[in-house]
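ESCALATION

Customer reports they have been waiting on this structure for their group meeting. Please prioritize. Original submission:
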Amino acid sequence: MKKIILTLTFSASIFTLGQDITRPVSSAEVGEKPIQKGNWLVGGSIGSLGYSFEGENFNININPQAGYFISDGVALGLTTGLGLQTVKGGDNIWSYKLMPFIRYYFPEGASSTGRFFGQGELGITGAESGGTSDTSFGFGINAGYAHFISRTVALEVTGGYNYSKSNHASAEAQNGLGVAVGFQIYLPGKR
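Update from on-call: job pushed to the front of the queue and completed.
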């Protein structure tokens, strides 16, 4: 029995040595092709994911977005958002946003596998808690980095300042710094 197991193990190891091992792709050299005039970007991010031990509440925001490149490196689009903040002993707070955006990809610091970008957005935000809702003005100024893992998909990290005048959570305004992670799919336009 030991000879059979030893023979099978030896045969399997020799068979494995002859195989090509494919490593997962962690980046792709894309140059400027994904951010050319006429292309589309579709994706989203998850931001403000967290848990407060003091207030014993959890919050998460999901922000899908789509845009169109009006020129090389400049995209106009729309960001939507839905958020949830759980409140211990109270009503949960649902938040939402609808904001047009402009995104600019900087040529400085660019590599063949990634790009730095800046994004500004301006629109409406709101919240609903305990049957009462409130809608107001909001804006955001964010910067980030897109790392291309294939010719059409990039992982992104963004950070910046976001503001909402909505009276959710019994506050007069919500503003502050935030960090988000997400992905974008870059679709080629018709040429």
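Sent to customer with the following note: The radius of gyration is 23 Å.
Escalation resolved.
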